[in-house]
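Encode chain A's predicted structure.
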Amino acid sequence: MILPVYLYGHPVLRQEAEDIDADYPGLNKLIKDMFETMYNAEGVGLAAPQVGKSIAVIVIDGTPLAKDFPECADSKMVLINPQLDIIEDCEPVTRSEGCLSLPGLSENVKRTEHVRLEWLDENFKPHTAEFKGFISRIIQHEYDHLLGEVYTDHISSIRKQMIRNKLHNLERGKAKCDYRTVAKQNR
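Encoded structure for chain A:
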């Protein structure tokens, strides 16, 4: 089932996600639905807060980007309760990032593209690996959602001022995209 994507400004995107255990109800269906939602919206990553669940679950599949970024080949993963360490052994790289929760926007974000990640897969089997290049950026972007952050938190205050009206429109639910969304509820 394709789930609605929660837009910038919704409180769930600012909550720190909670770790889960193997008894989390409906986890396999949620993971399947998250992949379906991500593919439907033509994304390469989706974190559970983006579908209204403040839990530490991420789905990633950067495979469509493999032509330009070979490190993204065969990168379909489920990350449960991930723990991320940034490895600062190289110069940060500035690249354009977009987000399914901020449709129609993209901004240049500087990140070090080398990380070490510990996580559980969908069978709660533990993994540890290092990732370099663009797949590292995808992982960091999605991991930020688990911390209650979005990529615009990493841009300059001048850029934030320049896109302020676009961000306010997203908060009001004024988004142009080809997938279902949920905006912040005004009270």
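The chain is about 20% helix and 25% strand.
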